[in-house]
What we know:
The structure holds two protein chains of two kinds.
Chain A: E1 31-33, H1 45-48, E2 86-97, E3 107-110, E4 124-131, E5 134-141, E6 147-153, E7 155-157, E8 160-165, E9 168-175, E10 178-187, E11 190-200, E12 214-218
Parallel strand pairs in A: 6-12
Antiparallel strand pairs in A: 1-12, 2-3, 2-11, 4-5, 5-6, 7-8, 8-9, 9-10, 10-11
Chain B: H1 3-10, E1 34-35, H2 49-73, H3 82-92, H4 97-103, E2 120-121, E3 129-130, H5 132-137, H6 140-163, H7 165-172, H8 178-213, H9 245-258
Antiparallel strand pairs in B: 1-3, 2-3
Amino acid sequence: MPRLRSPVNAPRPARPSITRLRSSALGLVLVTLLGLASCGDSDDPANSDATEGGRGPGSGGKPGGSGRPGDGGEPNDPDARFDSIWRYARGEITYIDTANPTAFEPAPFEFPDTFEVPGQERPLELYLQLTGETLVTYAYYENEAAYYRILQHASMADDSYFVSLGATVQLYTLKNGKLIQTTQGGHDTALILAETTLERYDGTFPPSHWPSEVVTFDVRELP
Amino acid sequence: MSAHEFFSRATALALVLGFASPLRAQEGIPPHFVDSDECMSRDCTCADTPMMEVFLNNQRNAREAWKSVREAILMPGGPQSMEEAVALFNSRFSGDPRVSAQFMSCDGYDPNVNSLSKIAGVPGIGQAALDPCFCNAFCKDIVEATVNHELTHAPTLLMGFANVAHFKVACKAGVLPDGFCNTLDPLILADSELISYSVGNATLDNAIDRLRERDPENPEMECTWKPLPPAPSSSQQAEPAPEGFWARLQLLAQRFWSGATSRAP
């Protein structure tokens, strides 16, 4: 089977350009790197994201968010930075029906270690990282020969990151050594607010049971 | 049909019908498929550009159909699962018969083996498998556009899932209403389809532009071409001849007097 390759460190155009598609077999994307995923500390941006490391708020360039004293009595994590590797821990949903706006209670829930994806019997592991102006999603299906590294644009604003997803926006902030993701959705007359807490993954990344081969998909280069 | 069965069956891409394989499922790849590097398509030349245009237009129409499906998901009574989204898409899009005819012109076409509803699949990350009939019938740029479309599905489905992972888990925990939860999967699929079509179509569009600028067989020249004649609509297709000698003779006489478009009741 062919592996479609293109340089992962290629400079990104200011705007998406379909002309970039001409030169590669799978124009936009896809990059297979053997051995990129060597073992390394998760806090080292050079290991976790070679393309953008060292330019984001979490890299020390901006003070906001990283390592602030906690205000909720939770232990702080001095090593927590945006460009740490993060995994989902718990969340809270607030469902506000505008037809009955007084009757809502935040509903907490816990994330599993792995996810069930529709149509896939194999569990999926997900990790996030914010580095430079990039949201990196690491995704691995059990027993797959490679894992995905999906790159999306993330905007920096002082001590926060914003990721635009069409009609909605995800906001990321650091709080008490945790990464807090806030987003919203809508359903009929209801507004849905979701606050998700991600915990820093402090093991070797990628995990030892992941393959060394990684396929990078850069959403920013889509036509 | 379970979700797993659905995706297993769906792995092979029905590109022309617009049904793209959403997820990886090795068991869904027909045994006669070949790896994309064994797909022996010829290079596209000026002579292929009319079909490339038809193929591209077909894919653009498919994308528009998915766009309408996505809008329907958010409407009352819209699709509540990926299967329902695909069914709605199939009801809103029919492939161009000129593409079908080209496919059936491949060497060794066997209607029991080769189906335009299954021409490509994704056996693993970054891999594509294709029906050799498709490889044979269409030139390389069309095949490459198809492969690019296919390879875009897996990461965009993953990305779509990751972007709503919090909602998915909350739904499973029972803290969100079914009416909301049931829209998530079809939206993930529709978004993946829209992006995949954009990628495949951009590939083919670029290829046509290259041919427009330069004839690969005569680099000093540009390709020029006439579009393929439009596919006959069903209303333009000839009705079957009536049975019986006298009925046919009567029809012939009718046409003699009234012209070929007239038809005896």
